[in-house]
Q: What sequence folds into this?
């Protein structure tokens, strides 16, 4: 987990150059940035993705794909993208003939991820699919199979795998600093009022709170435990209010890992929480806020963990770009990880019905 | 829950007297203190129970029952108890003829609670039994049945029901301040090294971490939810180390309450934690430390909760004394509550075997 990427290693070597050692990087051709097309121009795309390309070393926005022509024009203009590189959901297949586009970042409502991912892969492009991967297990399986079939990268937008506090927590969990890990737990929820958008619509929003915000808890339990769960138990709230009649509100879940670590988590559209804890037999980690955009507060045995700041979005995008450039590199957050998480969500909900735990392997 | 006791109400009336209103209390006979016999003179009895009688209004230590004659003599001397009031585990039945003893506080290892409670009840005395009530469901049932049969009070030493921060949390949960409660959770554990005493022995220590420290989490989930769970799911660790071969180490549990509140908790002898959280749809409570002897830190919507200090042990003992004086009073922490908690523990462990949730009603 958290393997040093080639670029990170090169950055390390570059650092040595400052210390008077030869900079090996000088003998290499500077890599050509990977061209990204941004599909969907909602808040996350315009506020969190597009502005952060400025810190990328190997990734560049070269096209937009949008259902809103005016918005697309404005955004393209803002980022120096020519009008010829504006696509829409009808002519998306034309990107096949645009060699500048190497990867499509799908940032639309979850219920549309499958369609846009499949079409982008079919057009021969690599895909970064925002989380949650989809709201349907069969769709997730198809997406992974399609990427394999066309031999393209499929990454999921799990930015916490590139966020320095979370990376340090993963490192500490693996380092022995906590002794043997025993319990990991996480609460992730936010209070959602009446929603006129996609969140509370099954077809667009996916499973509901568990896939939109609970997935951070599921992700954290897995990357802290350092494994995939083999057994899942879940509960479901009985207090559903009208606005959540199509989607999940409160779910609790237990994940059992093959290394003996026990995880438990909770999620909701009815309360606010963003935290995790790791209990080892020789130490613990607390994180709150744990997985936000900024403001992370992490402790190791009650002492604040300090990490060097870094742009999690830029690192996420550059990592996929590097994997596109170097087929031998292992993608940290592949489609298979997204599929694993959808399998967990599916098992939580089936378990809540059957009142029994579900074996995943 | 947390009903005002008669004494607390009288104290309120006394307060009015200071403001110039008549003190109705003056027209009543001062109640004769209830005589307590302390059975077992370990650390909790000598450090937490005996010294706190000083703050009691209606409770007085009048006898000790101990297996250590020298220790008993020293303690009796310290608290002004005559040597004639020192009993041992062989002649315990003699307390039947000692009218000064009205209630026996059983503070021995959990595996002996059943025997001493049954013998004390048979001797016609009321009993306060320290938590955990016992390490065996059948024993717990017998203890409750016996108290009923001999028409004596049986209380469990659940001091948190008398601790001001926890009382305020219960009040807030009932008050609507948090909106509708949805999720309650609690982690309670401590790291236990090699133990040469009773903790890791099934016969003396009971179930293990879940009954010794996890019971605080179970208790908290119930008194915060304001209900008894109807469904229980549990997991059990697979990493058992040698020193816990007879007892439970890590357990996780989900409790489903009939009012729709979902609870989850964890406990261990392999990590330290003392906390709970309440998530309502309009607010939350955090507590950490939550259930210690001192140092409670509670927040309501991130603002610290301030409460007037009070002696939780003195209040706990006086409450049982009041219930002994007034047969119409409802005991806050009756044997039935202890039995409920043992039923929950039993269900957690059965569920961990069956991999299915267990219905409790």
A:
């Amino acid at each position: 987990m958290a393997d040093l990427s080639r670029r990170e290693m090169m950055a390390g070597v570059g650092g040595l150059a400052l210390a008077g050692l030869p900079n090996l990087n000088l003998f290499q051709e500077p890599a050509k940035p990977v061209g990204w097309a941004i599909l969907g121009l909602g808040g996350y795309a315009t506020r969190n993705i597009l502005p952060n390309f400025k810190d990328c070393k190997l990734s560049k926005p070269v096209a937009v794909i949008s259902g809103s022509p005016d918005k697309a024009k404005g955004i393209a203009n803002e980022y120096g993208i020519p009008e010829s590189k504006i696509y829409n959901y009808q002519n998306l297949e034309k990107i096949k003939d645009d060699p500048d586009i190497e990867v499509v970042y799908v940032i639309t409502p979850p219920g549309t991820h499958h369609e846009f991912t499949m079409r982008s892969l079919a057009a021969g492009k690599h895909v970064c699919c925002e989380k949650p991967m989809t709201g349907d297990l069969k769709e997730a399986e198809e997406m992974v199979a399609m990427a394999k079939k066309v031999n393209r990268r499929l990454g999921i937008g799990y930015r916490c795998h590139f966020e320095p506090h979370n990376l340090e927590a993963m490192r500490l969990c693996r380092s022995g600093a906590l002794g043997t890990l025993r319990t990991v737990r996480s609460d992730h929820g936010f209070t959602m009022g009446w929603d006129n958008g996609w969140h509370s619509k099954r077809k667009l929003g996916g499973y509901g709170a568990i896939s939109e915000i609970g997935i951070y808890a599921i992700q954290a339990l897995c990357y802290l435990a350092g494994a995939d769960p083999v057994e899942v138990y879940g509960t479901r709230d009985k207090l559903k209010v009208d606005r959540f009649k199509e989607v999940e509100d409160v779910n609790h879940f237990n994940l059992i890992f093959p290394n003996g670590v026990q995880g438990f988590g909770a999620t909701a559209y009815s309360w606010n929480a963003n935290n995790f804890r790791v209990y080892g037999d020789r130490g613990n980690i607390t994180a709150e806020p744990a997985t936000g955009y900024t403001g992370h507060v992490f402790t190791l045995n009650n002492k604040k963990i300090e990490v060097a700041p870094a742009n999690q979005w830029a690192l996420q995008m550059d990592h996929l770009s590097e994997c596109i450039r170097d087929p031998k590199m292992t993608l940290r957050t592949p489609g298979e990880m997204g599929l694993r998480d959808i399998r967990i969500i599916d098992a939580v909900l089936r378990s809540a019905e059957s009142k029994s735990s579900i074996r995943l392997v």
In short: Residues 1-24 of chain B have pLDDT under 50 and may be disordered.
